[in-house]
Amino acid sequence: MVEILPGVHQIDGVYPFSYAVSDDDGSLTLVDTGMSNDGKSVLEYIRAKMSSAPCDVETIVLTHCHTPYIRGACEIRKATGARLAIHTEDADYLSGRKKMPAPTGAAGLLFRISEPCWHSPLSSRT
Length: 126
Prior knowledge:
The radius of gyration is 15 Å and the shape is elongated. The N and C termini lie far apart (about 30 Å). It has a single domain, classed as Metallo-beta-lactamase, Chain A, CATH 3.60.15.10. Helix 1 crosses helix 3 (about 75-80). The chain has helices at about 40-50, 65-70, 75-80, 90-95, 105-115; strands at about 5, 10, 20, 30, 55-60, 85. The chain is built from five helices and six strands. Strands 1-2-3-4-5-6 form a six-stranded mixed β-sheet. The chain is an alpha/beta fold.
């Protein structure tokens, strides 16, 4: 268990990072959710390490709309019913109303080639 401050947990095994913050009433807020396959790790951490239930997650805060920070949100939201919070400048990317801008250089080329695989995880589920 990685409790970095009282009530603030850095969730093990999630890249780049995901945090769970517990409130005095037992509700949880998640900050970032990692990649698609990290959703299960986040939910398991909440159950096993925090002795909480997925329904205790009330809010998922996404710090920005980069794939490694948001992809796990779909599975977690489905399991918890939590509301999503993201900056207004990123909301249209998350909902799928806007296309994510491609990076430049070699990363941009790779992004354009793989773009059909990178749909917003929540655009058809919100």
